[in-house]
Design a protein that fits this description.
CATH superfamily of the largest domain: Glycogen Phosphorylase B
Distance between the termini: 37 Å
Oligomer: single chain
Order of helices and strands: EHEEEHEHEHHEHEEHEHEHEHEHEHHH
Largest sheet: 8 strands, mixed
Helix content: 40-55%
Radius of gyration: 21 Å
Strand content: 15-25%
Strand order of the largest sheet: 3-4-2-1-5-6-7-8
Number of helices: 14
CATH topology of the largest domain: Rossmann fold
Length: about 400
């Protein structure tokens, strides 16, 4: 039986897609009979900590997890995690890390390399051009060549979720062995959709609030709708208080008033309720390596509006599940007008998206793909292109 260790800085739902991906991966692999453990910290976002048992394995919704206390908020440094990895990394056949520029995945990769245990690194979108240019750019540019680069180079494979994510990483000219494998998801039963014929169509934004998500663009596009008074914009998610406050101020300046609802972070049950009551889902991110929220909306039967900067843009386009915009204000406004005004088109696109998710991104398909990758690594099969010439 294969024993695999997954390491991620946080499993908190507040950390969004990366955490959800690891929970789903663990369930998918355990269904196939693999022994899968997850090591992480008690980080709960925004300086908070999860109330969880520490330094022992516990079952969390079908996931076998060991939480460790973090000592710092920045990079989620955890010495107990480092010590445990040094003592136990050899207990596993393979290590799969998630994220970069954070202590947990880098410590795991370093300890695995030191112990000669094969390891796979999933950057989780942090090698995209936006993040490297706009968030601690100088530190990251230095770190990627001094710390992350050598670990990526020696990894048995570097796991990208989409081809777009791989192409963006290739721009850094790093030496690595890339493999593109989407993660599967188990969203449970579809939310009970509420027909919008009798009421005002709800345009739903459901994601964390961050500069890269461009909620400001969404507010401006919504304000430019000729149909603005006949629909509502629901913004579900949290983020830095100063950013949220500035966005609310922008909404007031645009005269949006009661047309916009600020709903804060949505837990699982509330999220299902919001998806079931919406007419259109919008995620106008400048850059999105994957976009779990997009899949959640498609699974719920909602037509989606995304930008070409989303890793799932081609999936949305090929499935006929929504509209992919060029990221401009006019492009977003036009897409909103088209879907708000056409109930039949919303229904057709929503149905197509739900079918595509069920067909192509199931947990079983994910488990099969990842197990095949793991066995290829352990059999020393050639993975990707171990060179910096993996051009787009």
């Amino acid at each position: 039986m294969l024993r695999v260790l997954h390491v991620i800085p946080s499993l908190s739902p507040r950390r969004g897609g990366p955490s959800a991906a690891v929970r789903n991966v663990s369930r998918a692999l355990r269904r196939r009979g693999l022994e899968v453990d997850v090591a992480t910290t008690d980080d709960d976002g925004a300086g908070q900590r999860l109330t969880v048992p520490l330094d022992r394995f516990v079952e969390v919704e079908g996931t076998h997890v060991r939480y460790f206390p973090r000592q710092t908020g920045l990079y989620s440094l955890s010495y107990p995690l480092l010590r445990w990895l040094g003592q136990h990394v050899r207990d596993y056949d393979l290590v799969h890390t998630h994220g970069l520029f954070s202590f947990a995945p880098l410590a795991a990769a370093w300890q695995a390399r030191k112990a000669r245990v094969p390891y796979i690194m999933r950057p989780a979108g942090v090698l995209d051009s936006w993040g490297l240019k706009n968030k601690r750019a100088l530190i990251k540019r230095t770190s990627i060549h001094v710390v992350e680069g050598p670990l990526l180079r020696d990894a048995a494979a570097v796991h990208f979720m989409t081809e777009l994510e791989r192409r963006r990483a290739a721009e850094l000219s790093l030496t690595l062995r890339p493999v593109v494998l989407p993660i599967g998801f188990d969203f449970g039963p579809s939310p009970n959709a509420q027909p919008d014929a009798a009421g005002s169509p709800v345009i739903l934004y459901l994601s964390r609030i961050h500069e890269i998500k461009r909620v400001d663009l969404l507010l401006r596009a919504f304000a430019a709708l000729p149909e603005r008074e006949s629909c509502r914009l629901a913004i579900a998610g949290d983020g830095e208080p100063s950013l949220v406050a500035s966005l609310k101020e922008l909404a007031a300046q645009l005269g949006l008033g009661a047309c916009v609802q600020w709903l804060g972070f949505a837990e699982r049950a509330r999220k299902r309720e919001l998806l079931g009551g919406a007419a259109v889902f919008v995620l106008p991110s400048a850059s999105e390596n994957f976009g779990v929220a997009i899949l959640e909306a498609m699974h719920a039967g909602l037509p989606v509006i995304v930008t070409a900067g989303a890793g799932l843009a081609e999936f949305v386009r090929s499935a006929g599940a929504g509209i992919v915009t060029d990221g401009s204000l006019e492009g977003l406004r036009s897409a909103l007008v088209r879907l708000v005004c056409d109930r039949k088109l919303r229904r057709v696109m929503g149905h197509a998206g739900a079918l595509a998710v069920q067909r192509e991104l199931s947990l079983d398909a994910c488990g099969n793909r990842l197990e095949s990758l793991y066995r290829a690594v352990l059999n020393r099969a050639r993975i990707g292109a171990p060179a910096a010439d993996a051009s787009p």
